[in-house]
Task: structure prediction
Amino acid sequence: MTHPVLDPRLGVECTYGDPVTWREALDLLYGLLPEYADNLRAALEARDIARMHRVAHGLAGASSYCGTVAVHASAKQLEALCLHENASALGEAVNTVLHNIGRLMHLRQSGLPAADDDAIY
Result:
């Protein structure tokens, strides 16, 4: 299943219908994404599953209020894999999260949609 990179309507819904709060939450997330990506890469390189879990958990939480469905879903998947210490699947899961972060960053560079726009895949 392909998740949208950004679903503005969902993001606004998650911020109790306030598009200003949604945009502020999204801006905060954008500010954190490079650090999340760097930490995931470092955890993968070090094969540090505990660190990877902490980063995935933080990213899943941070992305849950923004309508950033693909990042949120892939971070939750990575978090679950870390809990089961399924090392064979971690590399692919981290790469999926990083790919979705990249898609979201690219969208910002292209221009963010209005709060009432349709989801972007």
